[in-house]
Structure formats: C-alpha cells, structure tokens
Amino acid sequence: MAGEILDNRGRGDAHWHWPAVHPEGRKFALITAAASFVTALLAWETLAWPLAFLTLGVLAFFRDPERVVPQGDNLIVSPADGLVSLIAQVEPPKELIVDDGSGSAGLTAGPVTRISIFMSVFDVHINRAPIGGTVRRVVYIPGKFMNADLDKASDENERQHVLVERPDGLMVGFTQIAGLIARRIVPFVKPGDLVAGGQRVGLIRFGSRVDVYLPAGTDAKVVLGQTVVAGETVLAETGTQKLIEGVSQ
C-alpha cells in the first residue's frame, strides 16, 4: 500500500493488516523472546510467561503502521501519535533561531504557537515530518528525564530539534523530547536530506513528547485534549488563524 494514492471519492485500495515492526525494536523482541524460551526450557514458568508477554509488548510498542498522508501545500500534519497536552504561544528554541554556521537561516524570533503531543507507552512512537522539504537542522541536546507532560520538559529534558524548510522557504520546527522512561532519541534523517510530508524521520524509545512550532500567523486546527495520529491528523493550515473549540464528552 505504501505510495498508493487514495482519495475522498473512493479511489485506491484500503484494507486492514497487521502493522510492521520497526527494525529498531526487533533486537529487543529477540532478546526477550530468547530469554522466555530459555527460562521455559529450565521450567521457570514464573519467568517464562512474563517474558513472553513482554516480547508481545515490545513488538506492539515498535509497531510501524502505514499512514495515509493528506496532500496539500498549506497543510502541516502531526509528527506524532498521542494526546495534545499543551497549546501555547512561546518563543521557539534558540537552537532553531540562531545562526548555526551552516549558511541556512533558522526560524524568526518572536512568539509562535507551540503544539505539544504527549506519547504514552501505548502510542506508536515513529515520528514523521510535518511538512515536505529539506531538513535544515538536527540538533541534539542532552538533558534530564523528567515527566514529558510537564511544560518545562521542553527546556530541561533530553531533546532533539529538527527544522524542515519547504521549497517556498516556509519553515516548521519540531522537537523530540525524552520522558521518564524514554532513554534514547533515534534520528532517521540528517541536515540536507529531502523529506516528504508524513515521512518517517525518527523515533523515541518508551514514552515521550513532541513539540511542533507553527509558522507565525498560524493557529492550531486541533484542540487541547484531542488525540492525533502521526502523518494523518492536520495540525494546522499555514496562514490560517481561527478559534476552534471542542467539547469533552
């Protein structure tokens, strides 16, 4: 199905299938499966069964389902699965603003809308590009491992900033943030790479958060408390400002 065009008039072929497991997770599943097998041979059933269930949990955590990415030059799609836990007007991280010596400009200083998406251990943890274009920056920052649901996690936790520039010059930055359990941010891209909107660009192991910095003059099309899907949910349309309200029910 990957690369197939589907539309709102029924074109394409859609059917459910078991999601693939990302290669990053296969080694962990192999280790737990081997441990379960060995303990079963030794008749240590009190360990064998929990290890078997842990293997299934690892496979589920690293699942990598296909996504149907909305197409449109003005669309910004969610880079992560999870809960919209914070929406605020903030200054973008300095790492995405200051001159990094690469010859490519960063984001313009000034308050913009930041959408924070919290990923629990039950969410898919593959992160995707919010727009198509050229990766201009990938900046890793070591830090703490406090609860990723806290606002200050954006400034204090281990994190990785990514900046993508569209062909027309518009830039969107996002930050992968480690959490209490997460201990590694794994990038799939580097500066200079070309990415499509919704393309896989990295993952964070075992619970975390992603912050998205919308361009100036752009409001979120999602509301606080909404569950979003990486590569599919439209977070914003560039240049659009409108109050959107939701009702919890």
TrEMBL record:
Signal peptide: none annotated. It is found in: Cell membrane. Is synthesized initially as an inactive proenzyme. Formation of the active enzyme involves a self-maturation process in which the active site pyruvoyl group is generated from an internal serine residue via an autocatalytic post-translational modification. Two non-identical subunits are generated from the proenzyme in this reaction, and the pyruvate is formed at the N-terminus of the alpha chain, which is derived from the carboxyl end of the proenzyme. The record marks 207-208 as: Cleavage (non-hydrolytic). It catalyses: a 1,2-diacyl-sn-glycero-3-phospho-L-serine + H(+) = a 1,2-diacyl-sn-glycero-3-phosphoethanolamine + CO2. Keywords: Cell membrane, Decarboxylase, Lipid biosynthesis, Lipid metabolism, Lyase, Membrane, Phospholipid biosynthesis, Phospholipid metabolism, Pyruvate, Zymogen. GO terms for cellular component: plasma membrane. Pathway: Phospholipid metabolism; phosphatidylethanolamine biosynthesis; phosphatidylethanolamine from CDP-diacylglycerol: step 2/2. It is a peripheral membrane protein. The active site is at residue 208. Its EC number is 4.1.1.65. InterPro entries: PS_Dcarbxylase, PSD-A. GO terms for biological process: phosphatidylethanolamine biosynthetic process. Its cofactor is pyruvate. Catalyzes the formation of phosphatidylethanolamine (PtdEtn) from phosphatidylserine (PtdSer). Belongs to the phosphatidylserine decarboxylase family. PSD-A subfamily. Heterodimer of a large membrane-associated beta subunit and a small pyruvoyl-containing alpha subunit. This is Phosphatidylserine decarboxylase proenzyme. The lineage of its organism: Bacteria, Pseudomonadati, Pseudomonadota, Alphaproteobacteria, Sphingomonadales.
